Amino acid sequence: MKFVDEATIDIAAGNGGAGCASFRREKFIPFGGPDGGDGGRGGSVYAVADRNLNTLIDYRYARRHEARNGEAGRGSDQFGAAADDIVLRMPVGTIVRDIETEEIIAELLEPGEKVLLAKGGDGGFGNLHFKSSTNRAPRQKTPGWPGEAKKVKLELRVLADVGLLGQPNAGKSTLIAAVSNARPKIADYPFTTLYPNLGVVRVAPEKSFVIADIPGLIEGAAEGAGLGHQFLRHLQRTRLLLHVVDLAPFDPGVDPVAEAKAIVKELKKYDQELHDKPRWLVLNKLDMVQAEERGARVKDFVKRYKWKGPVFEISALTREGCEPLIHAIYEHVAAMRNPVAPDPDPRFDADAPAGSAPVAAPDEPVDPRFAPIAEAPATPAAKPRRTAKKSSTSS
């Protein structure tokens, strides 16, 4: 199946139905009053993230998606029926952007996430809606409101934890085939990979991560050379980049250090945030280097490349060194998935004794809403006044 990661479509929500101006006409009822119903609501257009889709191929050929209009109101107090909504299923990781305003309407990152793209118009009011004690025979009605219509661009960015980066024929497809169940095309000529490949790497039960392989980059990719620049967006959501370098190129005149520096330079030209992502160095095809020369060649490469980050020596063809690599990747990805929780704020600690005042910084005033209520000082009870008894005098 052809991989499509961009598409442009037209979406249009349905218009609301018009209201009805009608009066009740029935035998022996001379003043039936208004009975025109309201119009129905037009259908809306929604986008839903579907985990079973991995391409936008369906929207390459279906360019127009239009919802139905709401029904008009009728007499006898009959309201118009609302139109059904349209649900567009898209792969997880799709970005929906308005072409005219360049505004991002939706970004589908969770499976089953539903987002409104175009709202249907509300139905118009019939004369029954305007009935009142002072207006007993209204003749006004309103038309339905129009639905929204947009031209949007769909852009797919695959959701992967790890992305492979490197020159053509560096062994990226061989690596993803060695550590996962993905089966990309592998051949001995450049640009074998024409579209991104995803693979799930299973480290242990309930321990896995997703790895993405994109076409190789060459010098000038930021200006449009080669194929990799078209798919660099798929690396923007990754948590880790693996820079795969071929230590045994076919052409002895090719310098791996110069090629590695060119890749990093093109990455920085394309997106600074992508360049600043965590990046590990993976030196591949060590099976084609003599065992006694491996250490010296790796040391010379790291020294001339001036690399101070993690370095892994592997052979994707023989799977030598792949196990330590995938375990280190999983530990890094799991740590980023589950960050350490910050220390709890003692001001909002649930275990604090009731009525205690919040702890404030030296220069921070205490919020009077949380200050304890000061008890009034106890006042001594007032002594009862003595009243003099009236003596009775006998006359």
UniProtKB/TrEMBL annotation:
Keyword Hydrolase annotated: yes
Enzyme Commission number(s): 3.6.5.-
SUPFAM superfamilies from the UniProt entry: Obg GTP-binding protein N-terminal domain, P-loop containing nucleoside triphosphate hydrolases
InterPro entries assigned: G_OBG, GTP-bd, GTP-bd_Obg/CgtA, GTP1-OBG_CS, GTP1_OBG_dom, GTP1_OBG_dom_sf, OBG_GTPase, P-loop_NTPase
List of residues binding GTP: 191-195, 213-216, 284-287, 315-317
Residue ranges, compositional bias (Low complexity): 351-363, 371-382
Keyword GTP-binding: yes
Residue ranges, annotated region (Disordered): 341-395
Assigned keywords, A-Z: Cytoplasm, GTP-binding, Hydrolase, Magnesium, Metal-binding, Nucleotide-binding
Residue ranges constituting the Obg domain according to the UniProt record: 1-159
Domain OBG-type G, first and last residues per copy: 160-334
Subcellular location: Cytoplasm
Binding positions for Mg(2+) per the UniProt entry: S173, T193
Cofactor: Mg(2+)
Family: Belongs to the TRAFAC class OBG-HflX-like GTPase superfamily. OBG GTPase family.
Subunit comment: Monomer.
The protein's role, per its UniProt record: An essential GTPase which binds GTP, GDP and possibly (p)ppGpp with moderate affinity, with high nucleotide exchange rates and a fairly low GTP hydrolysis rate. Plays a role in control of the cell cycle, stress response, ribosome biogenesis and in those bacteria that undergo differentiation, in morphogenesis control.
UniProt protein name: GTPase Obg
Organism: Roseateles rivi
